[in-house]
User: Fold these one by one.
Assistant:
Number 1:
Amino acid sequence: MSHDYPALAAELAAKLGEFRKEIPDTMKGFGQMSRAAHVDGALDNKTKELIALAIGIAGRCQGCLAFHAKALVELGCTRGEFMEMLQVAVYMGGGPSLMTAAEALLAYEGFGGETAGG
């Protein structure tokens, strides 16, 4: 299953905008949790995004692939860093995670991340 991950991220962002209007307290709480989780501390934000994407792979969450791959490209994640995260995600999740890891790589490349050999 291949997706246009930039389009998927845009579609989901629009729906999440509806959530902010219709269930604002839930979205405020989630937003506060997200901001707190992304503050640099013992782990920097890029490392936290790599972890989040690995969990998204394990959970087979297409939206997670889109949002976290985009964030990683914006944070300057190299292909080498991305591939090592995929390696750990596959190790922990087996064959199903291998397939979702391939989709995560499509998302990373779809947002402008480095391609093989380049």
Number 2:
Amino acid sequence: MIRDRGRIKWTSMMLPEHVKMLRDWAHEDTFEEQRILDEQQLEEMNAAIGEAMETGAAVTIIYYENKRHQLLIGKIHYYNELQQKLHIIDKFNEPHYIRIADISDVRLTEG
């Protein structure tokens, strides 16, 4: 019976630099591309943001940060027009500052 140990048997013959490069390469494979939004999606997001700011409702925001899409649930505190950022307070009362250009999706949260 052949016992194959997979990568374990090859790592002893590899230089540490090569092992690090392989790990970095595997990590880079998990990176995501930023979504490109069309005009209709932008209008829907604008309506959701406007309604959330007017009523104080909670929103679910998907935004692009560090080559990945992140999820944030909270209330929009205000919109900084000069810096083009939304100031959002999450459920733990922590502030988050998200650039408008990085936002992929905004939806009103029920509950």
Number 3:
Amino acid sequence: MNIFEYATKNKLRFPFKGIIATEDLYDLNLESLDSIFKALNSQLKQVKEESLLNTKTKEDKELDVKIEIVKYIVNVKLEERDMKIKAKEQKEKKQKILEILSHKQNEALQSKSIDELKEMLKELDN
């Protein structure tokens, strides 16, 4: 079963300023998600320390799924952030190239002779 399907079917809630639903995790920033992860990870360590048996309870499975969901969302947000940075860099580079191209076109136009410029004007008027 998919972790998100499990989360919705079992109505998983996460500890953050009270309790929040799975879909609310997407609204949080990376630092808040990290604090939730730390809280869940702390719970996981306590559960593992208290049990002498390796049998997993429903609570153990829920805790594992919660941790996986938070990890997944953090990775998605990191990828989105990286894509935004890359898109911004590409936009800036494109703008710089367009500025240089415009400058070079102006230079080429300025290097034309008076007769060539008059001829170009005459062609534009037609």
